[in-house]
Amino acid sequence: MCFRILLTLLCLSLAVPCMAQRKQIGDARTILKSGKNPEQAEKLMTDLLKDSANRENTRIYQIWFQAVVKQYEAVNEKMYMKQAVDTAKFFGLARRMFAVAEQLDSLEMQPDKKGKVNLQYRNQNAQLLDIYRPNLFFGGTYHLRKGQFMPAFEFFEAYLDCARQPLFLNYNYEEADDRMGEAAYWATYCAYRMGDPVLTLRHEAEARRDPAKFEFTLQYIAESWKQLGDDSMYVAILWEGFREYPASDYFFPRLMDSYTKRGNLEQALAVVDEALEVDSLSELFLFAKSTVLLNMGRYEESLEYSLRLIALNEDAADAQYNAGTAYLNLALAMDARKNRKQVRKLYQQAMPHMEAYRRLAPADKGKWGPALYRIYFNLNMGKQFEEIDQILKK
Fold first, then answer.
1. Cα torsion for 175, 180, 181, 186, to the nearest 10°?
2. What is the pLDDT of residues 339-389, one digit of tens each?
3. DSSP state of 148
4. CA-based torsion, 299, 301, 306, 310: positive or negative
């Protein structure tokens, strides 16, 4: 008798939660049919899911999904009627729809006791969400315009993530969606603006598919590898960017800087030679070659490229400095006693270039001051020498 009573009580204790669950599911369905207050229907389902015993019940997830869809469609209708709406809430509902549907689909993919998979909701949910998917992209651009980079990144990533979700297997977004590259670029951009190199590199492959922004994509990738301390990858991306965009003011200077900082002047020279093959009249490339040759001690060759640049632009201050420095170094390399006339001529040739540099960069006394001091001293130009001497003493 006692055993029967205990068994009855046990059955009743198990039945009470089931009855409560059925009631909440029934109440939610009634609410959804009425078309009013779908937020309450959503809350009923999320409350049920707080109990771990309910977390494999696909009906709960499907009703939850329908409740979010109803909220989304209600706001969408207000927008269509040009009524005031909370735009952030609208896009937030879009993301939530996808998140719930993907959770439901993952649950449906689990085989039953017989090893069978019953995808009861996939097709209808995927068909509906395919229509609304562009609003994941637009949710990203909405937050991007506000400078809200993390929410923007999450929306673009949700848009991209659809391509790998089994829920959308039949839609082949990776190949069929022309907007994938653009979404990946903006995700990459947002991550870059947040200063997160790992997130910046996450969608690199997809971002490369956007040809309109490829140059910037390579810049963000290069900066990320630099931030992560991977010098080989950093230089590899700089090379790729330089060969794709030799005229860019980003890749060439950094590639040159990378080699010159390590003292690899031969490799730096190879870079600038390749650049000059693309544009032999580029002032940047001519100046870079004159500078590398100057640092290598190849003064006559450096002078050749400095003079070539000055012929194009006599106000190129750094070219004037390089030319003056090359003449000075050639003079210093000679024996002044044996080659007095030649040395004097070299100082005379250096003088107009250093004076031009002084005129073009008057604040840079640390460079033109000592040079003109040496020139005027060796040419016995007393008045000019005394002026420079006073400037240096100050």
1. -170
2. 899 999 999 999 999 999 999 999 999 999 999 999 999 999 989 999 999
3. -
4. positive
The CA-CA-CA angle for residues 67, 93, 119, to 5°, reads: 55
Work out the angle at residue 28's Cα, subtended by the Cα atoms of residues 24 and 33, and round it to the nearest 5 degrees: 150
Distance, CA of 49 to CA of 43 (rounded, Å): 10
Q: Coil, strand, or helix at residue 30? A: helix
Nearest to 176 by CA among 204, 208, 199, 209: 209
Q: Which residues of 277-314 are buried (b: 16+ CB within 10 A; e: fewer)?
A: eeeeebebbbbbbbbbbbeeebbebbbbbbbbbbeeee
Query: CA 42: distance to chain centroid?
Result: 37
Residues 74, 59 contacting (CB under 8 angstroms) = no
- In the three-class reduction of DSSP (H, G, I as helix; E, B as strand; rest coil), residue 240 is classed as helix
Nearest by Cα to 284 from 258, 246, 323, 238: 246
Lowest mean pLDDT among 26-40, 53-67, 84-98, 232-246: 26-40
Q: What is the CA radius of gyration of the chain?
A: 36
Q: What's the full length of the chain, in residues?
A: 394
Lookup: tokens for 174:
């990776």
Cα separation, 320 vs 56, whole angstroms: 77
Look at the block and give the residue holding tokens 């030649």.
342
Whole-angstrom Cα distance, residue 285 to residue 261? 18
Structure tokens at 200: 């910046």
**Contact assessment for residue 63 and residue 101, using Cβ atoms and an 8 Å cutoff:** no
* Residue found under tokens 């205990």: 6
Which residue type, as a one-letter code, is found at position 329?
N
The Cα 214–Cα 222 span in angstroms is: 12
Tell me: the pLDDT tens digits for 263-308?
Answer: 999 999 999 999 999 999 999 999 999 999 999 999 999 999 999 9
Could you tell me which of 172, 174, 160 has the C-alpha nearest to residue 202?
160
3-state helix, strand, coil in the chain (%, to 5): 80, 0, 20
